[in-house]
Amino acid sequence: MVFSSPVFLFLFLPIMLLTYFLVPRALKNYCLLAGSLFFYAWGEPVLVVIMLLSIGMNYLFALIVDARRDSSAQLKWIMAVMIAANLGILIVFKYAQFLIGSLNTLLSISIEIPDIPLPIGISFFTFQSISYVIDVYRKDGEAQKNPFNVGLYISLFPQLIAGPIVRYQTIAAQIKERRETIAGFAYGIRRFIIGLGKKVIIADSCGSIADQIFAQNPADLSSGLAWIGIIAYTFQIYFDFSGYSDMAIGLARMFGFNLLENFNYPYISKSIGEFWRRWNISLGSWFRDYVYIPLGGNRKGEVHTYINLLIVWTLTGVWHGADWTFVLWGTYNGLFIMLEKAFLGKMLKQSSRVFAHVYAMFVVVTGFVFFRSNSFSYAFSYLGSMFGFNGSGSWGIDASFQLAENGIILVIALIASTPLLKKVCASLENKAKQSSNLRAAGYRFAATGSYSIVLLMSVVYMISNTFNPFIYFRF
What we know:
Distance between the termini: 42 Å
Oligomer: single chain
Radius of gyration: 24 Å
Order of helices and strands: HHHHHHHHHHHHHHHHHHH
Largest sheet: none
Shape: globular
Mean pLDDT: 86
Number of strands: 0
Strand content: under 5%
């Protein structure tokens, strides 16, 4: 069940909200836990057992860690077993087919690859489970004596499928005590609608463009068409991920939870380091606090720092998907992070803002070719077309058609990926507070109109794609 589906919007969510606000406060967590497990079981009726196993297992690990604090030797073994058990589940269900397939290719053997279903959101709830026990181990949070509270933390449906990764220490107090307010509920609705719009209007539209282009033989693409395809995909992946994060934050607020922000306009970045401080913030901070710093971070000299960075970014690629293209994408980003730490970062700070921004976006967009491609050969062939090495020309009729047909949604995506509208509306709202009634009304109307213009452009685009009479007279 996805947030944009009619079943969720018109059946599950209304029933969940109505039930939640009707039950007594003492039962609200149990109501939310039951609803979250039902939400997961809707799409994974059998694999919900894996989540229940994760909940029970990590509930017990946290209690054991809390009880064995006086024995450091035992504690290290317990933590090692905890990490191995959680990662073992993740590896079996997400990476087993990839690992066996790679082994078959490497050794020219033919081990049968089992058909193992992938539980939705397993990466998210596994990482949350690990962070819970580690936080207890570090005394950053208390071990929950109530297993239902642990279950709610791990299975909370707003962030279960696509994040953000919620740290136990940031939500523990809210599980025990929180207050739902009308203002918070209204904010949650607005935030959810913004995320839904990002997903349905922008991400899905840009995804359609990217799918059409990436479905073709990359060697036959003109440079212009290849760039249109990867730019469309760059917008798709951002508005998809950030849209789901917005919906998660909005849904959680409706139930009284405050989740941390997960995206902060990453496409205005002026370095790859800044990009990753703005993109999927919860994932970046998780790898920093639970992998990079325990490895030694930057405390053991330059060589170890670069090795640690390479490990973290390779793992980041692996986390995103079970394919060597994801591994290369993660390593690719890690190499630029290392270069910026070594010398490139200083050069970028001394260069113009325009140059630094162009550099960052060039690296990001180029890297997304590996993320989108299903093989190295496809990725390198696509890059060859982007940079004119495949001999298919710089521009063609297909590129002109795509730009004429879909240029407006790319412009909408470009505007929406910057804080421009937010700044304009904030400025108008500020002027409204300082003006007389009539002028204040005008400024507020203008602020609303700024968003309405983009919304109107989106509606026009969707209508034109649904029924465009001019398409029948083009040839």
